[in-house]
Design a protein that fits this description.
Elements (H helix, E strand, L loop, with lengths): L3 H31 E9 L6 H12 L7 H11 L12 E9 L1
Antiparallel strand pairs: 1-2
Helix pairs in contact: 2-3
Length: about 100
């Protein structure tokens, strides 16, 4: 009887870990193949700001399905090495967009 308890415990742990690995790998697998993050160039127009550009990219590419509004703005600023929220007409920005497979 003493020998069966450790074997049962080890078997339970192995089953539990297998289930966890299965769900974690399935979650990352499905996310990786449903969305394809790409980049587009965008020329800033008169009266543009990062919020209105984000809303425009959301209407075209549904970027707010993956980002929050502020998260997308922060990503754009990071990609383009912008430290403040100021952009100028004629600037060219690199914007992340989401392409559905």
């Amino acid at each position: 009887m003493k020998r069966k308890l450790p074997i049962l415990f080890v078997a339970t742990v192995i089953v539990f870990l297998t289930i966890i690995v299965f769900f974690v790998s399935n979650a990352s697998y499905s996310r990786g193949f449903e969305l394809d993050k790409q980049y587009v160039k965008y020329q800033v127009q008169k009266d543009d700001n990062l919020t209105c550009i984000t809303k425009q990219m959301d209407s075209e590419y549904n970027v707010l399905n993956l980002y929050t509004l502020q998260g997308y703005i922060d990503e754009v600023k990071s990609i383009n090495s912008i430290s403040r929220d100021i952009i100028y007409a004629g600037d060219t920005l690199i914007l992340p967009v989401i392409m559905s497979n």
